[in-house]
Inverse folding.
């Protein structure tokens, strides 16, 4: 594997071509890396405090989230690990019914990582954060030995203002709730697999990696009775449905024909022997809403590019707790479990 | 290198002896790992929300911090990577003048990590968090291929209530300020070096790894005019002083004889050709306080075990910006710069 990509950003002046162990040592080299690469790209008044942490204004009720990103390759059709880290943070906050306010970023860099690649990823991350007006207020850089960390890992935490009036959580789901998916599924997983060139698959499929706060906040603003939201990352739609069904003690009956899957994604899945409901997404969520609000939920979601493909795919019913069934195109329903093993490592 | 240590915790029922890639896949195996190892140890009402994030109450002004931990070995005299992660989070928040309220934890696990080791580290982390009443409210688990990540990396973010009335930051430092260090320096770095058995060094020196919130909050409560606080981790006392001097545009004149260093640490440093002022700490900070408050600062700090060894080590003066000098035992002062390269990788 190579860690080098076509450099699209010049290396900041005074920095070497590759990351060195000294860049994590807490001394002069680290300060040069932080100032030259990170502070320059993420520039905001919080970072300018130059302190061990950032001082921020917070709402009375906040949502806190965290995620690590270890995707390989670092750059793939439709995104890269930096953009993924920002959008993943935004989406976890949105799933809590929160307006994203601040994020933190911790970087674990591999000795020998191309400085051009790092600069490119940090620029992409800064662009994604700026697009959703989410300042990266504090951060950390560590460097590990060559052979570890596949270039870089990123960890983020997010803080958001809780704007939903009530809790949005599995405990709020009720029998009869409508289950809505926000768009076609499976693109992220297929895009990453194709980018690895490991599966003999060439495709034009790009990741669905995107921020989901706008449509979710529009649902909140409209007073939709949102009971639970779940973004569909690792484990795909299937794991998202089963997790919520188990945590709420209810069952879900879904209709496979109603689940949007693009033809090229479906073809790639057939070629690879994968079931699209288990393939990862990075810009899709499932909403459990009061059945009376199903139509208005769909109408609102369809106003946004990122959720224009929303569809009603099923309903919640009383027990057995955790049971998810999916009616197939030929009629009979199959029981869907969570992914039992590992479909594809390092997908996010 | 081995990733196995004497297991002190039983492996939770139903889990295999080692971490597998499937434990990061978003499916059934991941849920079993999270429930069996993490949720069981960190149990609190926030985690019980079983959501993509936690809903918490926040103050109007908060401090946000983040850090990744990549220390090797994972367990060392006086601590382990889990305890280090909690205390590091507490300390970064304290340095902002904040009362620690919540933390997040992201784990990057290596395929093949001993489940007993993971369970032991998570138990230690839970104990450290409980000791300072800091709930781990949300988390994330990723698994990377064998050969990456040296067992595990941990990333944390911290949220604290800002209780200091004004900003505590380099910009607040004034010429004339007293410079106080909170105890003897260099123990963490020497303890980790000895634990690696790489340096031909046997010693009984334990890391100073400890939470610093209590003494700092006591200074805030007493109305001490705290201008800046900096915990002395990577790069040691030297880098901490130079960073604050540079960011404040002032100089610092310190007295080497006044800097507390234990005899065994000094002896180990001499053996290894290290200068104690560059060796890492994980339970020490430097305070820049109004000169009139120097005596009362010392009196308060000496009431706490963790800062009983506090000492006045110097004073701030007008320019040249960033210049730190240290008067030696024989009289003449030397100029101290940040660590220029890497003294020891993977120290925290």
């Amino acid at each position: 594997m190579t860690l080098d990509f076509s450099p699209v950003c010049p290396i900041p002046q005074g920095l070497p071509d590759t990351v060195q162990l000294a860049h994590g040592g807490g001394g002069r080299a680290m300060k040069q890396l932080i100032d030259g690469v990170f502070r320059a790209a993420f520039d905001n008044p919080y970072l300018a405090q130059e302190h061990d942490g950032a001082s921020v204004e917070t709402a009375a009720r906040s949502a806190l989230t965290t995620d690590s990103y270890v995707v390989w390759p670092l750059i793939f059709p439709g995104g890269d690990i930096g953009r993924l880290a920002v959008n993943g943070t935004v989406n976890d906050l949105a799933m809590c019914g929160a307006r994203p306010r601040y994020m933190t970023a911790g970087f674990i860099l591999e000795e020998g990582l191309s400085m051009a690649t790092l600069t490119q990823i940090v620029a992409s991350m800064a662009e994604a954060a700026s697009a959703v007006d989410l300042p990266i207020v504090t951060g950390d850089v560590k460097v590990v030995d060559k052979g570890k960390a596949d270039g870089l890992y990123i960890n983020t935490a997010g803080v958001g203002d809780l704007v939903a009036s009530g809790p949005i959580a599995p405990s709020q789901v009720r029998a009869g709730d409508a289950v809505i998916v926000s768009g076609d599924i499976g693109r992220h997983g297929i895009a990453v697999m194709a980018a690895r060139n490991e599966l003999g698959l060439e495709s034009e499929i790009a990741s669905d990696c995107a921020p989901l706060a706008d449509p979710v906040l529009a649902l909140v603003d409209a007073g939709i009775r949102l009971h639970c939201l779940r973004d569909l990352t690792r484990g795909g739609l299937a794991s998202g449905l089963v997790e919520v069904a188990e945590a709420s003690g209810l069952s879900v009956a879904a209709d496979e024909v109603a689940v949007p899957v693009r033809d090229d994604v479906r073809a790639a899945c057939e070629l690879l022997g994968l079931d699209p409901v288990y393939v990862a997404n990075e810009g899709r969520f499932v909403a459990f809403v009061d059945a009376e609000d199903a139509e208005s939920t769909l109408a609102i979601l369809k106003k946004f590019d990122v959720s224009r493909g929303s569809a009603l795919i099923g309903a919640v019913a009383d027990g057995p707790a955790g049971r998810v069934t999916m009616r197939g195109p030929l009629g009979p329903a199959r029981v869907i479990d969570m992914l039992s093993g590992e479909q594809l490592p390092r997908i996010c």
The first strand of chain B starts at residue 54 and ends at 57. Chain B touches chain A through 90 residues (CB under 8 Å). Chain B has a mean pLDDT of 93.
